[in-house]
Amino acid sequence: MNKTQLTDLANNPAFISGIYNYCDRWCERCAFTSRCFLYATEQADPDANDPELRDLTNEKFWQKLQNIFADTARIISEWAAETGIDLDSVDVTEEMAEHKREMEAAEQDELSKMARHYAMTVQNWFRDQFVTDEDVHDDAMNGSEPVSENVTARDAAEIIQWYQFFIAVKLTRALSRPASIDESSDDEDVLTADFLPAEETDELVDYDAVISRAHRIDSNGSAKVALVAIDRSTAAWGALQLSLPDKAHTINQMLVELDRLRRLTEKRFPQARDFIRPGLDEVLSEFVS
């Protein structure tokens, strides 16, 4: 996709701005794919349905990734030239080093370690309890208790496995966005003053403060989607426990781990639950003209 095609696509008024920033990337189960710019760009790719391009061990995957990087670099260069920005004059070495330090610190955080431990516990549970993925479904079908008419054991297993690593990724991102600002501020209003017209403010804009506030908003957004994943995983484990009563005692461990993870996440990010994800946490009618 060239720059013109990308720009034309981005200008589609049907898209909900930023909806993909705090979603769970489970497009197959999303009701908002028709309103998502990122989904549209992926579907515009003629190779979108090629399974080899989703296989990290396949050469085609890496070649496709290289092409994406090349196209992205070209588009950025064109935009920079149009706006008069000299990319060669921008020194990002220190910024990259700082980002690396923040990521390393986040990965060593207690919350991040707890999330990774949960992910591996899930991995081990499915390995120990079932020889193959099909065994999950076979065992569930022979269970003495049905889950419900709308949620099958297969659904529950898919939900658990979809989110098992996702939670750790999002919490690590949340922890890697430090911000030294007043935590009592509301996310909804925190950026308002920074973008007032120049004639409406008597002070110069503190761009460091703007970035700091933006980092906190991103932290809360990332923590929010992690909490959503924790909630859904908890419900899925509960459903699986009903379907497979003979494994109930081993599932209890998962529920305990998730509860500890939820409590610590809410403690570390007390405003995360209040974060409003574009589109996903808003009334649909607000987007209908």
Rg, rounded, reads 22 Å
Please report the number of helical segments. Answer: 10
Strand content: under 5%
Structural class: mainly alpha
**What is the N-to-C order of secondary-structure elements (H for helix, E for strand)?**
HHHHHHHHHH
Distance between the termini: 29 Å
Poorly predicted tracts of residues: 187-202, 284-289
| Percent in helix | 55-70%
Mean pLDDT: 80
Number of β-strand runs: 0
Shape: globular
Helices, strands, pairings?
Elements: H1 3-10, H2 37-43, H3 59-83, H4 93-107, H5 110-129, H6 133-141, H7 153-163, H8 166-175, H9 207-243, H10 248-268
Helix pairs in contact: 4-8, 5-8, 5-10, 7-9, 8-9, 9-10
Structural overview:
By secondary structure, the chain is mainly α. It has a domain at 91-289. Helices cover 56% and strands 0% of the residues. The protein is built from ten helices and no strands. Helix 5 (110-129) runs antiparallel to helix 10 and helix 7 packs antiparallel against helix 9. It starts with a helix and ends in a 21-residue tail after the last helix. 21% of the residues are buried.
